[in-house]
Amino acid sequence: MKEKIYVHVADDHKILIEGIIAVINTDKDIEIEGYSLTGKEVIDWSKEKTADILILDINMPIFDGIDVLKFFQSNKTDQKVIILSSYDDVNLVKQMLNLGAKGFLSKNSAGEHIVKAIKAVAAGEQYFSDDIQNNLFKLYTGQKVAEGERPESTIAHSLTERELEVLKLIAKENSTSEISGILNISTNTVETYRKSLLKKTKVKNAVGLAMYAVKNNII
């Protein structure tokens, strides 16, 4: 029987952890070992436990992801790490790799890449989500962003005030009926806003919307 891959998830947003766990649980070869909400919790965890893969957010309270990687490096902790970040700057990617990370996923595309990334890194490979690979390609080839391609921040600015209100409530795990009551609009109107948000942000579900909201500092 093939051995399972055990994964620990570290992020300061519980809803993102739950979303990542939900995706991971769809694959029978991967199992969640546990999760942490701060960098300190990750460091404390690493002193007593281990996992095949650590999914590590960069921006966390007390100690951030960079501090965690530096701790691993200075203590010669043999832990395979995949970075999860709201930022996709290539210089940041290179810094994380120099500190020992084996993969890098941006939060807006983590849902569709997380399982592949875990399996690739567990097998000894590096893994980057498509947007990270594209940025690295542009850096080394000198190519510009294609005409008509819009950065995420531009999309965020195109959302209406009401769409932003609905997005914030979705990201805080409110149901359609709860949003309807809070904003005093019909459930059909809420669903219309939800469909518009999915189309504009190019994500597939509420978890993707929550990740988008976090990445763009909407919540």
From TrEMBL:
Modified residues (4-aspartylphosphate): 57
Location of the Response regulatory domain: 6-122
Residue ranges annotated for the HTH luxR-type domain, each copy included: 152-217
Cited SUPFAM superfamilies: C-terminal effector domain of the bipartite response regulators (SSF46894), CheY-like (SSF52172)
UniProt feature coiled coil, ranges: none
SMART domains: HTH_LUXR, REC
Keyword tags: DNA-binding, Phosphoprotein, Transcription, Transcription regulation
Protein name per its UniProtKB record: Response regulator transcription factor
